[in-house]
Each structure stands twice: as structure tokens, then as C-alpha cells.
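Subject: complex prediction, re-run

Hi both,

The earlier run crashed halfway through, so I resubmitted it with identical inputs.
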Amino acid sequence: MPDAAGLSFEPGSPRDPVFIGVGELESGRFPDRSFIGALTEVAMRALDDAAMKPADVDTIVLIPNLHSFDDQADLIFSRMVEELGLSREAKSSFMVHSGGSTSDNAVRVVSGLINSGHAETVLVLQAERWGSADLSEMVTMLTANGIPQEWERASGLTFNAVGGLITQRYMYETKSTPEEMASVCVALRKWAQLNPNAMYRDRELTVEKVLESKMITDPLHALECPPLADGAAAFVMTTAENARGRRDAAVRIAGSGGCVSHYTIAQETDLATMGWKVAGDRAWAQSGWKPEDLDFAEVYDSYAAVTTIASEKLGLCADGEGARWFASGATSPGGDFPMNTNGGLLSAGHTGVGGGMALLIEGVRQLLWAAEPERQIDEPRKCLIGGTGGTYMDAQVLLLERTEQGGN
Amino acid sequence: MSEQALSGLADAFNEALAEGRLMIQSCNDCGKPNMWPRYRCPYCQSADLGWKEASGKGTLVSYSVVRAVPPKGFEDQLPYALGVIRLEEGVQLLARLEGDSEDGFDDYECDAAVSFSPHPAEEMRDRPVAWFGLDSGEGP
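This time it finished cleanly. Structure:
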């Protein structure tokens, strides 16, 4: 790949693409909450947060769901345009999809549309009903998708086994103990307890509880596997010019980096690094930022090792020390470097493709200084969002910064 | 190479498994081994691809034991172990692991030497997957 060019967005330029509002519904099991109803509600929450109405939106970008192909078809064929009263007003409505890293790639797509003038204001919508779906059906669906049918499917590979393979190699290379791995889940739970939208906000977790839970896919215990959840999230992006005056700040993109390292997990040649080092280096090169510039990070955490590997290879902590870093309390509420302040997928809930979306909007919300007071970090200005999809096929990094209205 | 449907890509690999052999797709132009089978060589993009028999020796990059929540059809296999194997030819594949000396999986560890373990033809036709076990250290 050629060296990364700098972004064409300039801070303070009229067409600098910015986040101006976010919306979210509570994660968990809500069998009576309808899919389209959830999307409509979360759309209105994000628009209210942006001080906008549906008529301000010219483009809708859909994040896929994984619970139903019928519901997927409703998304693809523009049902949300009608639901929001935008028939003939909307220029475009379409889906972006790369599994767990979709929201990161959606930000790339949307910022390009806005900066180039193809769109003025874009509403990005996501909802999932994984928590209410039949678990064995979802496991079988996940085994049938993303694991090549003519090659690895006959092995009986599951996504929890993919997590097991990564965790086993990570623990071997870093000499991290089961207690240290479990403590990552405990650190995430402490944040979830401060998040009213988190699935497990009311349940305390200890290292002992994690290690006493049933072994699912060695070395992962049941409480180290992500809980499938219903959820919904949305955000609004527009030009810096349109954002002005709507609220006291917006969030801009300082740079991004990505690395697609494999399709099937068995083809990953470095299970304890994956794409994170390369993706991070590309993001630092594009932005001119260093890890020390960051105030906090929100990094995909469907399994503890996914986050500890990313934290190390992105330079957020010392190499090989990720699990012990989480265990030290450094990333927990009150710690030096907050990580996954919504509780992450492991404690806020794995809402399918929405897991990364929830982390992304939590990062934006923190930079807007709009999180609930007990969870709000003290006036943060810069954050890193890390996402990954499929069998951790890619590593995606977004570097976001707060920008005050009128200050540019 | 003749045109083939997607589901035919691994036919030669699967047929060899039923005969007790482990094959690696290999480029007839640049000579590089490639796994899993593809339509073009990922190194030189040649369409002239063939197969070579693997030595069957490799190292265990990582492994996991599935004890619960299996895909449909694998309930009667529990518990079963999966491993990422790096063959000495340099390519990797996902494999099932044999039970160890205690018929569990406690003897396995990352970077252990492992070797291909042929299974009966009938089983391979039903569920074509390579099996590996801890290397006994004896020559072939």
C-alpha cells in the first residue's frame, strides 16, 4: 500500500465533516420492542440531540442487523425513508457492511460524502434483536456465515472458538494468567454499572465469578463470552458549517487507519497481533497524533484478548502487558486512561454489528461532554475508536477530536 | 484450470483426505504453496494451480476446546478440540485435534509439534476435515 495521504478535511473549513448528535436505546432482552420501532425511536433521539428534524437529513446510511434477513431487506429497500417522512426528500438510502467494523467504515464513507458535497447531513441507523432471537439459531447462523462453507465449516468452528484460539495464543505469548484475563471483564463491568443503557448495569462481577463459570471454549469461561443483546444506536454527521450554533461543540475526524489481515482465522499468521500494529501506524501517520495525545479509547471487546491485543499494538500500554494493565485499574472508572466507558460488548451487550456502533457513539458522546455525569470523563478532547469485524479480519482505527463551535 | 463451481474448490483436498492423504494447493508457475484453495495464485495470480502432498508435520499455533454451544449437528461431538496448524511447508489450516493420552486435551500447548492423523474414508466423506495429533517424535 502507498504511504497514507493526509485527510483532505481541514479543521475549521466549512465542509469539515463532524458528528453533531447521537442516540441510543437500552441494550438487553426486549422481545416486545419492534425492530422498525427501535430504529425510528433511535433516529429521533439522535436528531433531537443534534437539534435537527428529519427534514434536515438528505442521506440515510443503514448498519445491518444479523437477526433477520427479512428485516435486512426492509433496511436495504429504504423503509426508514418512509418511516421518517422523507419520501422524495431523501437523496440516498443504503447499507454499509463489514461486520463488527461497519460503523468505522460507515464513518469513512459518510465523511467522504459530506466533504465532497455528495451529502449535507447523514443519519446513520442501527438496530439489532440478538438478545430476543433463538440462541441456537443465532449460533448456527454465525457458524454458517463468515466461516467458509467449503473449507472450515466441517470442523465445527464457532465464534466462541475463534475467541478461544486468539485468547489461548495471547495468554501463551504474554504469560497472562486466567485471573488477569478475567479482570478485563471485571474492569468493563465497572463502566457498565455507570451506563443506564448497559445490559449488565445491575450485576456485579468478580474475578472469582468469571473463573467459576462454565468453560465454553477453552480458555474462555461463559462470563468471558459476549452476551447477545438487543440494542439500537444512531448518529448524525454534517458539515462544520451546518453544525455551527446547534450545540456548544462537535466532533471531527483527525485521521484513520485500517488493516485487513485475513478472512479465515486459520490464515492469520500472527494471532496475538492481527492487524492492529499496521492499522495504528497508518492512523498515527495520517493524523500526526501519538498515543500519548489521547484522553481515552473505545476499542472492540467481544473477547478480552481482542481488546488487550489492540491496546498493546496501538501503543496504549506496554507490549505484552494489556491484561495486567486492565487488571491494574488503569482503564477503569477513576483510572489514568479510561477504556470502553460504556462497558463494552462484554458488559453493555453484544448487539451484533451494533457493538462497534455503541463504542463509537460512546466516544462521540464523551467528546461532546454529554455522557451521564457519573460516567463522563473530565473534559476529554481526543479519543481513539478501534473496531474489527468477522473473525477479527480487520483492524480499524478512527481518531476523533472535540471542536468548539465558532472556535475555528 | 477448468472452470469449477465454488463448492468444487476443495474437492481434491477432500478426496485426498478420504484416501488418508493431506494435500496443499500449489502454483505450477511460481511454485508457492497456498492454503486454502483459491481460483488464482495469491502470489503471482496464475490460474495454473495443482496439488502437492504435504509432509503432515507442523506446529500448533493455537487451540480451543469446544465444550458448549456448538453449531447444529455437532452436539454429539462435544467436547472437541480445534487447532490452527502451521505446516512445515509454511501454510496454515484449521484442524480437529485427537484426544491426548488421557483422552482429554490437557497435553496440548501452543507451539507443540503435531502431525496429520488420517481418519476413515466414510467419516471424511461425511465431514471432511483434517485431524492432527501430538507428534510422537517417530519418523514417518
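Chain A touches chain B at residues 135-136, 139-140, 143-144, 148-152, 154-158, 160-161, 163-169, 172-173, 214-220, 222, 264-269, 271 (CB under 8 Å).

- K.
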